[in-house]
Amino acid sequence: MTLQIDGVDMIGAIEIAAWVGSIVAMLIVGLVVYLMVRPPRRARERPMREPEPQDVEEMMRLLDRIEQRLEVLERAVETEPAGDRTLEKAGESREARRLK
């Protein structure tokens, strides 16, 4: 009994094996990614703690300071001449971009 395998049949079998292997590999990678990013089953809900009075005071001071800066900025934009919009275009220049 002799077994004859044609080269074309061999290439066809290799292509099918490559397709099946690719699909299986993608499924395994998808499973690994899912297992890495899923939330834990027994996620404990931590009770929200009351903020300390010092933290509340500091946050209120920060909010007041932010509001003051916003008012100053709004006044600066309002008083700027109509033809000169340098404050609005300040972030668009090449020098203003962050370089890594």
Structure description:
This protein has 100 residues and is an all-alpha fold. Among the domains are: 32 residues; 37 residues. Helices cover 58% and strands 0% of the residues. The protein starts with 6 loop residues before the first helix and ends in a 21-residue tail after the last helix. The relative contact order is 0.04.
Distance N terminus to C terminus? 70 Å
Over the alpha carbons, how many angstroms does the gyration radius reach? 32 Å
Helix content: 55-70%
Which whole number gives the mean pLDDT? Answer: 83
> How many E strands?
0
- Which ranges are low-confidence, i.e. pLDDT below 50, for 5 or more consecutive residues? none
> What is the string of helix and strand elements?
HH
Please give the largest β-sheet. Answer: none
The coarse silhouette is elongated
Structural class: mainly alpha
| SS element count, helices | 2
Strand content: under 5%
